[in-house]
Design a protein that fits this description.
Growth Hormone, Chain: A; 16 helices; globular; 2 domains
């Protein structure tokens, strides 16, 4: 069962990562003018609509259970992805991207809610389970851009979207066959608290706030990395294909960390502390990228970034599961992934707005991450002390 859930997570994130190398090119091929800013808007609208649906998906999960939302999400997203193959104008692409962000945002909170509830019912090692889920995300981050680049070069961008649409339909079939959670009806059908009260309660929980702030900070750093690393490499006269390998490096390192015995760290230590330590490691990697003057130093920086990512992602997911009740777990994951969308948008947009150079961007995000990590450690001390008293 867990393998199927990891496969669903891989498929859901494949939608995002497979599109990264081709969206801008597809928009330009449809006639979008690079000088008007519409291409940037087309790229960014996905994250905006994704933010909206992440939150509402969580509410729906708590009312109806994760399985039903997974089925609906994969079906709707598969249909919308097919629309990419028949559009003919940049304006149509903009609307399809908006709808794609909405439909994709339905899936992720449902998938992670399902895996945390299933994991608890079977008494699995929770930290290790989240590590394997992180490995599924990492595989999508590596595999998605790789095959989409190859397919788009040989066949064209519409064919890539056709393949992603087929993946979504595979996800639909898998969702139909996964077993309903044993207590699903009781957990989701008998909730009497209002949505507003549930959200307010979640936002007051300091353990969840650690995960939410951490997700915004890390997603912002990822947005800056995706934006600035190619520019840094170009300034050092590094060839384009090596830049792609650099970006893949952190994913490979993270996957190894998730799958090797190092994944025991999530069960042996408080996630409230593992998360800020991961942010500190990412901040250190940003400083390495800031000072790097060679390809070797860039690779070292990306290895450190991969270790930081490996410490951060499962820790955040564990905190959301640990500090939210079963009947509002979906809402908690909806807010969590909404925070990731906010961070991704802020990272690239603020950097662009202030016209920072790559070195200025890396130094700035490192400083911010150090400050946020220190703040989280202060909050974590109160959270862990309170949990021991209980």
């Amino acid at each position: 069962m867990l393998f199927l859930l990891y496969l669903l997570i891989f498929i859901s994130f494949n939608d995002l990562f497979a599109q990264l190398p081709i969206v801008s090119i597809y928009a330009e091929n449809l006639g979008a003018d690079p000088n008007t800013g519409i291409i940037g808007f087309i790229v960014g609208i996905y994250s905006f609509s994704n933010l909206l649906s992440n939150f509402f998906s969580g509410l729906l999960v708590d009312k109806n259970g994760p399985k039903k939302i997974l089925i609906a999400g994969f079906l709707i997203n598969g249909i919308i992805l097919f629309l990419y193959t028949i559009i003919q104008t940049p304006e149509q692409l903009l609307w399809v991207r908006f709808l794609n962000g909405l439909s994709a945002g339905i899936i992720t909170p449902a998938a992670f809610t399902y895996i945390t509830l299933y994991n608890k019912s079977t008494h699995q090692h929770h930290g290790r389970t989240m590590a394997y889920a992180g490995a599924a995300v990492g595989l999508a981050a590596i595999g998605g851009p790789t095959y989409s680049g190859i397919v788009s070069a040989r066949l064209g961008q519409p064919e890539v979207y056709m393949i992603i649409s087929i993946f979504m339909l595979i996800g639909l079939v898998i969702s139909l066959f996964i077993k309903p959670l044993q207590k699903e009806k009781a957990d989701y059908g008998d909730s009497t608290a209002s949505d507003a009260r549930n959200v307010f309660a979640l936002l007051k929980n300091k353990g969840l706030l650690i995960a939410f702030f951490g997700s915004v900070a890390f997603a912002a750093s990822q947005g800056i990395l995706a934006y600035m690393l190619p520019l840094k490499a170009s300034a050092l006269h590094i060839e384009n294909h090596l830049t792609g390998i650099l970006i893949s490096t952190f994913g490979i390192v993270a996957i190894l960390f998730f799958l090797l015995p190092t994944n025991r760290v999530y069960d042996r230590f408080h996630n409230e502390y593992v998360l800020p330590i991961g942010l500190i490691v990412v901040a250190a990697s940003d400083l390495l990228l800031y000072t790097a003057q060679s390809l070797k130093m860039l690779f070292i920086g990306m290895v450190c970034y991969g270790i930081g990512f490996a410490l951060i992602f499962p820790s955040m997911a564990n905190l959301v599961s640990k500090h939210s009740a079963r009947n509002i777990r979906g809402t908690a994951f909806g807010i969590f992934y909404g925070c990731i969308s906010v961070g991704s948008f802020l990272g690239s947009s603020i950097t662009g707005a202030f016209t920072l150079t790559p070195d200025e961007a890396f130094a700035s995000v490192a400083t911010v991450l150090f400050i946020i990590a220190a703040s989280i450690i202060l909050i974590a001390r109160k959270v862990t002390v309170r949990s021991h008293l209980k």
